[in-house]
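Section 3.1: Structural characterization of target chains.
Under the original work plan, the team committed to producing a structural model for every single-chain target entering the pipeline before any wet-lab resources were allocated. The record below documents one such target. The sequence was received from the expression subgroup and is listed exactly as submitted; it comprises 552 residues.
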Amino acid sequence: MVDAVTTQVVRNRIGSLMQEMHYHFYRSGYSTIIRESRDFSCVILDRQGGLIVAPPMFFHAPVYRHLVATILQRYADAIGKDDMFVCNHPYEGGLPHVSDMAFVAPIFAGAALVGFAGSIAHKADVGGTMPGSTSANATEIFQEGLLLPPVKIYSGGVFNADLERLILANSRQPELVRGDMHAQMAATRMGVERIVETCERFGAATVTDAFAALLSGAAAELRAAIKALPEGEACAEGFMDNDGVELDRPVRFAVTVRVEKGEITFDFTQADRQARGPMNLRPSMVEACVFYSLIGALDPKLHFNDGMREVVRFKYAPNTITNASAPAPVSSYQAANLKLVDVILQALAPFRPQRAVANAGSSGALLISWKDGGRPGQPSMQYEILGSAYGGGKGNDGASALATHLSNLHITPIEILESEFPCRITTFDLVTDSGGAGEFRGGLAFRRTYELLQDATVVRRYDRAKFPPSGIAGGKPGSRSRFVIHLGASNEQETPASGRYDLGAGERFLLQSAGGGGYGDPNKRDRTALARDIAEGYVSADSAERDYGNKD
């Protein structure tokens, strides 16, 4: 048995190591996806693939267990020291989509396998029908890029250069992908080396016992929090605009939450059929949404790791939006994730009303493929991750202009965009009155206006143009998202939230996120807070009178 102090020392050591891996990776990354958006995670796992400490990129957290389970099944006794595996397969490895590439390396102390180091990171392009590999309207996964089941890229320390050549031959941005791959493999190898050093210092048995203690401790913490909930059942549903292919058909998410005898069940059997377009989810992503929402609703001080799987039950129906079957496309999974989080939080609200929160404004991506090659010496593809705003909650207004739920991503600065790509950002500000009115206001949407300096193909992936983020407890919905092409021209056109557009040099487009929903009766908003909103430009005088009943 390992003592409590040593267990916490090991936990903190792993947390610090993950930060070190994260820092070295993003400082070594080639693409703006890595060095600006930081769309990746680095982790340490036990010998069954159990996550010990959650990464900042939370939605990656449950993926590793699925991936390592497949590696252990396929390779069994053929896993050796100095091996490393690569995978980007959503169905065989549980990855979010094919653009996310994982590297996993076993950690040996002597002859004993003690764990794995792992990382997942978005790649600039892995093939498929669309530049950037993230189509808004793919109809099968083969259109989304090269598929890699778990295979060895290092075997006994020998690098498989042929496999790298195969990967790069399928990419429109081979230099970016190669640079990011090598930075990622180096960060993963760092994890292996540091845990070997930890085993040498504390002893391998102590380290593995500490892993087990951390996993069982997280299970016990969550079990105690669930036992404090009232028993019962609650349901919720929500809709995405469409799946990118059937444009007139909303996509329905549904969940039933049951609390009984100290356990909690999340039942997704009533969810919509799997989509024709790329809004589908695999169970690893559903698990991420559930654990994220559960910790937020119960107690944000809970430490997530894979030990919590003991306490939570999942029910799925086959061939549904939350349990899709191959070859259903999945490249727009994050928009689906964020709608599902809203729905799960709504279902959890009756059990913990003091932690209830209105719908957030989702997150999305913008991809610009420059037809004339972009700026000299720079990549020809621009990829951005863009957030929105949180909904209001009891005692708190929603935050504005940031990535919401699950990801903790960064918005690429204007200075980086304009210096590396042939575009100008002519507007970047918050949108007055876009936050849902409430006793606690929803966060504000932001908007950006782009001017293209070269011909380009623009791909926008987003949601919330038809169904705005809902308010809660009497709060009003936030504003809808908008995407306007040919801005200011005679053929100006407001488009669906997601789509692919060919635009010419000199043309402009407007991108506007959705605002967060409001919480509580707007007439109960503190008058001092409302006056501050008006002074800051968050709420107009007209809205203050119309939505908040302000007669001053």
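The two ends are 67 Å apart (CA to CA).
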